[in-house]
Design brief:
about 50% helix; UspA; alpha/beta; five-stranded parallel sheet; Rossmann-like_a/b/a_fold; about 170 residues; Rossmann fold; 5 strands; Universal stress protein
């Protein structure tokens, strides 16, 4: 039995999600792992209070998310990996952790796009807490061409610090 015998791939059809799917498929194929694919429809908080509109919008979003899941399962099959698809609605962090625990996976594969401080702040609290919510390993697929982004985030932080310093001296 290999170290990773049950793998959960998280897929959302973004560039980062497709990269995670490729990496996960290759790993699952090499390890002959029991493979699961998860698509999460994030709750649309902006629709609360608009009951009629919310039901229609949720139905459209749910259909799109299920199509994304089907597309992911098809891509895996084309690469020689048989995967069971799973669909969930809610916070991606909560749902990934819930499904990982329920399936007793050894490895979660997710895609990641680096972002600056403002984007991280905008994402809200709990955005990076998946590591604290699961008891298995996590493979984070990162695009090597994003290597210059941390420098951008650093310069963004420096600019903010400079602005704060100037404001204190005024």
């Amino acid at each position: 039995m290999s170290l990773f015998s049950r793998i959960l791939l998280c897929y959302d059809a973004t560039r980062e999600g497709r990269r995670a799917l490729r990496y996960g498929a290759e790993l699952a194929q090499q390890l002959h792992a029991d493979t699961h694919l998860l698509a999460v429809l994030e709750s649309a908080h902006w629709l609360h209070g608009f009951d009629a509109l919310a039901a229609d919008a949720l139905s459209i979003e749910e259909r799109a998310a299920k199509e994304i899941l089907s597309e992911g399962v098809s891509k895996l099959k084309a690469s020689g990996v048989t995967a069971t698809g799973h669909f969930a609605v809610g916070s991606p962090i909560d749902q990934i952790a819930r499904v990982a625990h329920a399936l007793k996976v050894d490895l979660i594969v997710v895609g990641h796009r680096r972002c600056g401080l403002l984007a991280r702040w905008w994402a809200g609290p709990g955005h990076g807490l998946l590591l604290d919510r699961v008891s298995c390993s996590i493979l984070v697929a990162i695009d090597p061409s994003d290597a210059e982004v941390p420098e951008l985030a650093q310069s963004e932080a420096s600019s903010q610090a400079d602005a704060a310093g100037r404001a204190q001296h005024q």
